[in-house]
Write the structure tokens for this entry.
Amino acid sequence: MLRSDHRFFSDPGGSDPDEEDVASLIADIAAVFHWPLGELLALEIDDLIHWHTLAVDRWNQMNKAKDR
């Protein structure tokens, strides 16, 4: 998801994610780590949220603007 600050990922935060939120978590994790869908569907929601946080951190690290 593109956030208003033009970063690729958004923070799911708040209450339990609905089906659309879970699909976004899975898509984001797969985009960064290239995990197959079957493995992602087997994860519990807490694990998805954990791996999504790591994916966001990794994405931001890899794509941060260089200091001039």
Q: What stands out?
A: The mean pLDDT is 82. The longest helix spans residues 45-63. Residues 29 and 51 are 7 Å apart (CA to CA).
